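User: Predict the complex.
Assistant: Input components as received:
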Amino acid sequence: MPANGVLRSLALTVPILTAVVLCSCAGPVPPVPTPQVAGFDPEVRDAIVTAHQQAAADPSSAQASGRLGMVLQAHAVYQPALLAYERAIRLEPKEFAWRYYLAVVYQQLSESERALAALSAALRIRPDYAPAALRKGDLLFQLGRLKESGDLYKSLLSEDPGSAMALYGMARVKFAEGDLSGAEDFYSRACRAYQTFGAAYYGLATTERRLGKDAQATRDFDLAQRYAADHPPASDSIADQVSAMATGVYYRLAQGDQFARKGRIEEAAQLNEALLKKDPENFTVLLNLLYLARFLDRFDGQLDDLYSKAKRINPQVPLIYDYYGAAMARQGKYDAATAALRRAVELRSDYPEAHAQLGEILERQSRPDEAIAQYRLALAQGPDRAVQMNLWRLLIIHGQGREVIPALLEALPIEDMYSALRLVLIAEAYHTTGDAAKARQYLEQARNRVRQEGPPALLAQIDQELAQVTPRP
Amino acid sequence: MNGKDWTDHGRHTTAALYRNRHDGTFEDITKGSGLDFEAYSLGVTIGDYDNDGRDDVYITTLGGDRLFHNEGGGHFRDVTAEAGFHNASFGTSAAWLDYDLDGKLDLFVANYVQWTPQADLWCSLDGATKSYCTPESYKGTSSKLYRNLGGGKFADVTEQAGLGDPNGKALGVTPFDYDGDGWTDLFVSNDTQPNKLYHNLKNGRFQEVGLASGVAFGEDGVARAAMGVDAADYDRSGRPHLIVGNFSNQMLSLYHNEGNGLFVDEAPRSTVGRASLLKLTFGLFFFDYDLDGYPDILTANGHLDEAIERVQPKVRYRQTPLLLRNRGGGMFEEVDAFPTPMVARGMAYGDYDRDGDLDVLIATNHGPAYLYRNDGANINHWLNVKLEGTRSNRDGIGAVVRVTTAGGTQWQTVHSGSSYCSASDLSLTFGLGRDEKATRVEIDWPAGARQVLTDVSAGQHLVVRQL
């Protein structure tokens, strides 16, 4: 291009750039977005409507618009949330939070480049906010910009050398760059910084495998599995302010589900009870409480009420009867439990859990033939090692040891939590056929195994049984 | 396969059987074929399980899979019960394989979750409209391995083979021999659960080595939503590598087989990852669409949720298939050959017009099947090899075919399964590029016998019978 062409091109470019800069900083403030709230549950709708009214009533308030964005973001209404944050940024360009939230929403929308731009802008205001920097490092990594990602983690580590997340991020960059010894070093440091960091152990193990360090890799794969769901707490107080605004039945149900999965049964129950007070006919909540009742004594009094309500709303759902049956069994009310579980399998014949549970209760009621039949029905739906063990045990107790020996022998190579118990069962099965030598052989194998792996209680049982099959001098 | 319409629209759907009229068109011969049964079917796999020379059909169906024996003359007989099959566990993909090298085809069926219409849960993306729940909401269920006992009988050997996995949520399976020992191993892709790699121990049992081999999780140690899967040697390293379809924002996994029992996901560092990031991939496979001798990748994509664009505007409900051309040296480039967005699920390949290049069939949700005729590969030469086992299984499933030309040696395994809920042509198409002949064609039959042909002209459909 001739020189005058370059100048002409520059002359055109400068006004365009100026216009772009002016638009982004000083253009007209966009209107307050009006989100559609039809179909939302009343609590969420109210929260959104209130925030919207406040933003509309005070159009010059960045706080009000930003708060509207936060409420919308907390309930996954992302497009209007973007507009609300854009508005808050125009009104208050130096506020870190609006730009940070904007970036988080762009990330939710898979708009990585825009998220990166918003994060960079936010970090220019508060370069010290580590959660934002970590987020940016991760985004750069995802976009394949490994050097920039690595530089950012390096800078974070110069501020906080013990940051497990920054060490982990740096390890991922090193691994992606093919620097395996660097990756190993940073993964190891991340694991030391947070000793139950599942993902870091996984990265470390994978790196060790590639380095040919198989023994270490095996150990670290085990740790990765053990700590699979664990990672350093986020400590993102600014993002937490958005999460704290989440409300509504579905959010709470999800929260209750999380509590239950983590074994926090009482918290899950309290949350569902609060939901039931607001919405006594909510079928999901009723089902949740029926399920949780098997773990908590305090539900014994209201169990029948929950059961009746759930049946009235949708009597064809087998889960009602399954859950009620389990809760009644816990109370020792086996007849009622049996009746409920029979109803569950009547509604859904291919319901292995209900068959298995019914089998266990019938066993406790000393009805072995019926229990055996239920275990068989459960297993007809698919393999279940716990049910299989129950069935074999019951068959042996009731004189059908010879029948189970071939199946047990076939299952012996399986390595799982029942491996030792299988050896005991096969010994017991041989014992019932009168073959004391075989019984002794398998009990000794079981004892060796349990000595190494536990559990100690089983060792005592094995010793007792060995004494029975060992001829006295 | 067609899903049964459970609404009250009065539409009843069945499987569909089309006969190729040899003129580029097909005739619907479903009615009276025996395959005209109503069901909510998901997947299909084809194999001659009784070695009678006719391919039989196994269909995964919600509520109970079916095995159909090919009686000849376009007729099939339901032999599910008499053959010993009982799988009502939300079967998805299935694959025939001869895992014990006894010359008879065994069957692996991938099973998904414990779901029934009665046990359906209410979930929502936006808090207002119902959408599919994530798989975490449902319990997993074990996939199954059925051993062919001969005489048309099968036995469920899942547990004794070491394949029992009650937490599994399997959507895809590919049988492949990752360590090159001649015994077929299995890769099973799981949705939100670790993928499994089952190493064949040559004694009727498998050992799960997914974690230690690096295929169980994503790079971040988290299980992805894996669906379709396929295996091939895309870089002529002599080892089979894996491609796995995942959820949107998870990208494909391209597991490179390092040869020491370890796989490394090459997708994040390559075009494969970047091009597939926003796609939600179900069906996918390696196939040499341009016949240049290097396997390319095609993926069938489409989101689960019609409302996804409201929540994530960059992710589309209808998505275009993604074609990634193999440039050699382990590098791929995106090719814009499939412009129509669709909600794609199953996908298979075959040369329906017998012109030598591979055509593609894509099944979609709430939409028609798309048949794509390949017209772009005719400048290159090709060789199609169909095997006919005599001591090995009749389809030659598990056999390795190596083709050598002036341009080098490439190889493929005859394999069933792969992709998602689909069955592709069991004959193998080799792209020879500009080479007009293969100097050597070497067949390693499953039980170990080797057969060699020399100076084989390009441009022919070769049938090789086991000597």
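The radius of gyration of chain A is 31 Å.
Let me know if you want any component modeled separately.
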